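Narrative of accomplishments. A recurring question from our advisory board has been how the design workflow behaves on a single, concrete structure rather than in aggregate. To address it, we present the structure tokens for one chain from the evaluation set, followed by the sequence designed for it. No filtering or post-editing was applied between the two.
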């Protein structure tokens, strides 16, 4: 056995399927064995592997034992001369394994311990974690406080990602990425398995360092390229990533550094956890609410000037409106307008003028209804409500136009994010087109079977999305075209026998999965929000009814448990019960009540229940939830 490939999986079924397809193609010229260690996935990953890849050896854990322990479970069974640790969200080229094997086999003295390859993300951007230096206190300091990012090519400041080394140059390095570590088995036998104290992150740094300490060499080998969708940069927006990653660095420091060096590193890491955590928290708040804050500020500024103008030219009274109007009532107006804008999808991309106008109209009607019922002393001005609504709608359109002008060099608000897709395929091209039409967000689709002219064809037709059919082209060809065409285009891959288009639109996103669920109304972003608002609103409204619910709802204790799970987001008041649907649709939640409850007079099979739920998802509206909720109120404790 030449190579044992080990893939640790957790709830990324579609990425794993694509990874295994590429691994099988890359294994043709070598004697290989493939292990998938599943860490208690709930998305049907194990069943998919058993059904589609019967030659793959599966280790199905009942709990998530972590990355290190899961790899070790397979390593002790592996018989290969080399061990490859591979992430499930990767795509390897057909020649990747052969090239790595030949490169490592060329070391006559066997001092080559492990090798990593050039990695790109789903848009073709080079991933700097492909090659790294040892995170000494100095190197960690420069990375933590941004010097490495400011001076990436500096030999002093850029040592964490070795930015001064050309990405196409072979080089002996300190640290390999755990996403792809091609290791000589004899070296692993000598240095030991992965350290299971590292649950996630840091284990690759630790193993790389131990390989070096035993006198072996680690290499960066860029003569083959793989795709790694969830690169290191995709996780940095997570507070959990900051905590887990830097804690892993703390474990590493205590294990390998001594004396003052260890104390300094520990102090630095503890400070980094606080510092980077705070920065990440603030960045997340800012990025997620930036446009909302801009809208609120501009709306308030506009209404402030409208108020002053109205006082001076209409009312002829400088202080006609009291401070309570400006600082209490106006913010309430703005909140209602922006909240209805949020619910109507005015903050979704692509931006839609109709969503903005509908939201402002609905918000204004809501304000008008409330206005009619409040005491006279709080009824300040209907005119300012109307003028404020008009101004808020205008500024929302204006800010989005400016956004498009800056980002797309276009004044078009609606069409820039619509997909203009190029499908590259032969036998599978029509199937790819059908999936794109099912998704409903593609403005134009053209097809080609000439991979060599991809860049030219996409430029002629101004395509912003390319879909590759892997059944018709090699993964190596696809990876090469992604690298050639550049990162201004979004890329997706359709694999043989799959209904998923897999890709990544940005190095800052973990990966995009375009499956059939996107064609169901229930999973549209606007309806996901509306459903969550419905769940929370109902949960809050039920609080005053708790004494009555003791008598109205069967199994009150279970109802309280359901109520808590709805509040936490684990369940929804109306949702799926079919295991088949829950596994097929990653975004689906289990319901306290199910759509099939309206058909209690019939005895339904599991397949019939699943079909009822699919119809519910296809035709979803909030009114359907309200209707089901009211009719089955007494069953909320089931």
């Amino acid at each position: 056995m030449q190579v044992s490939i080990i893939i640790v999986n957790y709830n990324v079924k579609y990425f794993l399927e694509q990874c295994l397809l590429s691994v099988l193609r890359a294994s043709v010229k070598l004697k290989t064995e493939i292990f998938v260690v599943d860490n208690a996935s709930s998305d049907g990953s194990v069943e998919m592997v058993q059904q589609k890849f019967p030659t793959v050896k599966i280790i199905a854990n009942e709990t998530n034992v972590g990355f290190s322990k899961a790899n070790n479970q397979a390593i002790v069974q592996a018989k290969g001369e080399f061990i490859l640790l591979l992430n499930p969200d990767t795509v390897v080229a057909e020649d990747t394994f052969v090239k790595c094997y030949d490169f490592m086999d060329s070391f006559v003295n066997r001092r080559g311990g492990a090798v990593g390859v050039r990695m790109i993300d789903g848009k073709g951007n080079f991933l700097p974690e492909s090659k790294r230096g040892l995170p000494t206190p100095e190197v960690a300091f420069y990375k933590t406080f941004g010097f490495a990012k400011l001076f990436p090519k500096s030999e002093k400041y850029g040592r964490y990602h070795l930015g001064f080394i050309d990405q196409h140059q072979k080089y002996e390095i300190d640290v390999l990425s755990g996403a792809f570590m091609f290791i000589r088995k004899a070296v692993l036998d000598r240095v030991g398995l992965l350290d299971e104290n590292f649950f996630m992150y840091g284990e690759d740094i630790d193993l790389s360092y131990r390989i070096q300490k035993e006198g072996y060499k680690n290499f960066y080998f860029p003569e083959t390229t793989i795709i790694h969708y969830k690169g290191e940069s995709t996780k940095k927006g997570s507070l959990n990533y900051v905590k887990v990653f830097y804690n892993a660095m703390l474990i590493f420091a205590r294990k390998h550094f001594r004396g003052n060096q260890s104390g300094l590193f520990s102090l630095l890491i503890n400070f980094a956890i606080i510092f980077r955590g705070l920065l990440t928290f603030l960045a997340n708040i800012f990025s997620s609410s930036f446009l909302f804050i801009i809208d609120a500020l501009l709306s308030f500024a506009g209404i402030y000037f409208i108020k002053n103008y109205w006082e001076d030219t209409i009312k002829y009274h400088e202080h006609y409106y009291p401070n309570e109007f400006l600082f209490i009532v106006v913010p309430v107006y703005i909140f209602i307008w922006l909240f209805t804008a949020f619910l109507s999808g005015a903050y979704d991309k692509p931006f839609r003028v109709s969503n903005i106008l509908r939201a402002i109209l609905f918000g204004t009607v809501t304000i008008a209804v409330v206005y009619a019922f409040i005491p006279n002393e709080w009824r300040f001005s209907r005119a300012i409500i109307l003028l404020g609504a008009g101004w808020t709608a205008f500024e929302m359109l204006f800010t989005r136009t400016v956004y498009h002008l800056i980002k797309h060099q276009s004044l078009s608000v609606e069409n820039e994010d619509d997909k203009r897709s190029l499908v590259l395929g032969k036998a599978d091209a029509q199937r790819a087109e059908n999936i794109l039409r099912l998704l409903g967000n593609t403005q134009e689709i053209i097809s080609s079977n000439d991979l060599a002219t991809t860049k030219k064809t996409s430029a002629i037709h101004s395509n912003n999305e390319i879909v590759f059919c892997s059944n018709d082209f090699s993964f190596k060809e696809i990876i090469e075209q992604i690298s050639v065409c550049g990162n201004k285009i979004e890329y997706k891959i359709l694999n043989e026998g799959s209904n998923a288009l897999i890709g990544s639109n940005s190095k800052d996103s973990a990966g995009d999965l375009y499956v059939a669920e996107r064609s169901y109304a229930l999973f549209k972003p606007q309806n996901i929000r509306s459903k969550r608002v419905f769940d929370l609103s109902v949960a809050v409204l039920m609080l005053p009814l708790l004494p009555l619910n003791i008598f109205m709802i069967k199994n009150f204790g279970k109802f309280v448990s359901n109520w808590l799970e709805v509040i936490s987001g684990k369940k929804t008041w109306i949702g799926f019960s079919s295991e088949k649907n829950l596994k097929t649709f990653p975004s689906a939640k289990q319901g306290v009540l199910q759509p099939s409850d309206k058909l209690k007079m019939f005895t339904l099979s599991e397949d019939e229940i699943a079909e009822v739920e699919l119809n519910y998802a296809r035709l979803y509206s909030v009114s359907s939830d309200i209707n089901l909720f009211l009719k089955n109120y007494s069953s909320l404790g089931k």
